[in-house]
Amino acid sequence: MSPVESASAEEVTSSPLVLEMAGVSIDYERRRLRTRAVHDVTLSVAHGEMVGLVGESGSGKTSIAMSALGLVPIAEGSIRVNGRSIDYRRRRSILEAGAQAVFQSPYSSLDPAQPVKAILSEPIFHERLSRAAVVERVRSALEDVGLDPAAMERYPREFSGGQRQRISIARAMMAQPSLLICDEPTSALDLSVQAQVANLLLDLQERHRTSYLIIGHDLPLMNHLTSRLYVMYRGHIVEEGPTALVYGSPAHPYTRALVLAAPVPDPLKQRERRALAKATVGRTPAAEGGCAFAPRCPFSTELCIRETPQLRRVGEVSVACHHDEALGTTAATTTRTGTAQPALSPTITIAPADQAGSETGRGTHASL
Ligand SMILES: Nc1ncnc2c1ncn2[C@@H]1O[C@H](COP(=O)(O)OP(=O)(O)O)[C@@H](O)[C@H]1O
Ligand code: SF4
Ligand SMILES: [Mg+2]
Question: Of all atoms in ligand 2, which is nearest to the CA of residue 309?
Fold first, then answer.
């Protein structure tokens, strides 16, 4: 039996979780230099849940998506989709696990040389259905995403960006996945089309009870789409909890900076918030050991530089931070009193560049 066929039945466990990642680390090798892109990530998606993963570019979001799809190997930890162990070397176990993906660019992810019918048939090729049955599934998938079934005879270049992303979603839905991993599904689209695609994902979730892991950096959109949110920074999960809480009253200093950088309708407020966010979120060297955010964090102490903080429960969220006093108002109040208080306006401490990462570095508080 080839390694491809040897995914054994005993590897499958029953679980209320559609995706379970435990202690996952991912390494890449470049010019014989091995670097760790993802550190000890534990993440889950329950059946029917819409979970978000946010973080700035390079934080490891796509690596996590690729590992859950068996497209990159993991150095440590384990991944299960529908209880089935995902092994990079066993393609069949991955195909059978029931996860599909929608990627950022609807331009590069669709083969321009194939008509839509062929593109959509690919995920069900292994089911060896009759030609008529395949056409019926393609027709139904196109209707499901709001496209005319006649689209099946046309080529990707004949469609707009939004329509192409609908085709990508239809392709992913062809295999009737229980988990859909969407890596920045709207960020390559025009603003006007983004909401339509986001609403289509919500609509599909309602109709098919599909579970989602949605990766993105548009926090208001993630707030609209997801019920639970993970925040990543330089390969580490730094905060996790109900989206309304993480977005509405962020606890971790990095999440607070990320929320400040998110767009708001008032341009004056926007400029103010972005300036504050910039003071903590910029391109600075990663910390070697300790808290990855320490070089940018105004609350950083010697402990932060020495020891990597583990996620710990603070009220309804989990936060990877050593110091209660660095946490946002709701989380900090929860730690002190054991009950969450109503969200206060977000505050963030800005440290001068030379102070960030110092032993006691405390900056000036700026309330918004
Ligand atoms: N194939 C690869 N080879 C080497 N390094 C990679 C590769 N893919 C990603 N990386 C690195 O891993 C880190 C995380 O990348 P990625 O997962 O793409 O982050 P994100 O999706 O959050 O932007 C980055 O530093 C990136 O340069
Ligand atoms: S206070 Fe320390 S542990 Fe918490 S985010 Fe800042 S540097 Fe990291
Ligand atoms: Mg990415």
Answer: 3
